[in-house]
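Q: Hi! First time doing this. I have a protein sequence and I read that you can turn it into a structure. Is that right? Here it is:
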Amino acid sequence: MTIRCIDIETTGLDPATAAIVEIASVDVLRDGGITNIQESLVNPGVPIPAESSAVHHLIDADLQGAPRLDAIIDHYKGADAYVAHNADFERSFLAPYLGDATWICTYKCALRSWPDLLSHGNQALRYHLGLINPHGIDRKTLLPHRALSDVIVTSAIFIELLKFASWGELVQWSGEPALLTILGFGKHRGARFDAVPEDYLRWIAEGQNELRDEVKFSARHWLAKRHNLS
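A: Yes, that's right. Below is the predicted 3D structure, encoded as structure tokens:
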């Protein structure tokens, strides 16, 4: 079974209007190491907005002479499972190319494995888990928000997750909305879901509102858990 951690940088968030500017992947070995390290700049065919450059620090001049995605995507195909941090994002851009494969989201799985952390971002998890030099790679050579550096960190987080959960649990959690522990809005902002009054949780879970699916899902989860314990 080939498990491939993958990361992309893009010109924006919406795959209908944005394009990939960088892609990288590593394959995870049974012993926890990595192999088949790949990375490529990608010509998106459109200018990079300044707001996107501010994240990954790639500009149009960096991509002069870079291949189009169609020319290099075959190198990233063929894995049985793909792993990404916030995998819904990678999948929204890459699913048309990578076909029918299992996806693991290290963000969603980290929320389940370490629910009490203040942040479940890639770099926050890296330092919380002590992955200062992931896979023995000098931290000074890693550039956050560049595809290869991020995928190396993601692979190290994934290996840690395997110590806390089974493969089946990781697959299940990745296929569900993110399970939140802390409420991020409203009069109970900052409170744990399991401490929020029941009527407010029911409004989130069942009310006619435009809250995100992950917020509604989390409210339903914590309501059910509360009643199972009562």
